[in-house]
Amino acid sequence: MAMLSKLRDFFHNEPGSLRLGGAEGDLRVAVCAILLEAAEVDQEVAESERRLVRALLREEFELSDAEVDDLIDLTHKARRDASDLWPFTTAIAREWLPAQKRDLLVMVWRVIFADGRLDAYEDQLARKLQMMLSVNHSVLMEAKQLARAQTTGD
To answer: Which of 7, 13, 63, 149 is most buried by its number of CB atoms within 10 A?
Structure first.
């Protein structure tokens, strides 16, 4: 519940705007928004994608199921207020180390691969994220290979 309170306080500080800075909650919402976009970009959210997004959030941020639900609810609201992924990726691009960005891209690729298909829109999203997160193409390809290995190993 403490996380939910912090996130609600954050969103109530500036009504109608999403301000992503260094706060832990901001980055959680940003990561959640990116993972949800990866699941939804092909207009079909498979149950395997939904489960994986929840599992990744639970593992990455050490959240309970209830906290994951709260984070997803808040992220849906934040995404409605944002016109695209820019407010979410900006905070990550500015604050995260290259290895952290690569790990995020691994999570994105894992969500993309979760339904067993690679759609053109999914591939386009990953390439867009590579640019928005300010990482080299080689990092994107490394993340893709790591995700494939993890997906086949699951």
So the answer is: 7
Residue with the larger pLDDT of the pair 26 and 96: 96
| 96: Cα separation from own chain's centroid | 13
Q: Which pLDDT score, from 0 to 100, does residue 91 have?
A: 85
For 2-9+24-153, the fitting CATH number among 1.10.3680.10, 1.20.1540.10, 3.40.50.1010, 3.90.550.10 is 1.10.3680.10
Q: Residue 7 pLDDT more than 80?
A: no
Long-range contacts from 121-129, C-beta under 8 angstroms, 24+ separation: 121/41, 121/42, 121/43, 122/38, 122/41, 122/42, 124/41, 125/37, 125/38, 125/41, 126/38, 128/85, 129/34, 129/85, 129/89, 129/105
Per-residue pLDDT tens digits for 124-133: 999 999 999 9
**Token couple for 71:** 């984070």
**pTM score, two decimals?**
0.82
* CA–CA dist 97, 65 (Å, integer): 28
**Half-sphere exposure in the Cβ direction for 19 (13 Å, CA):** 12
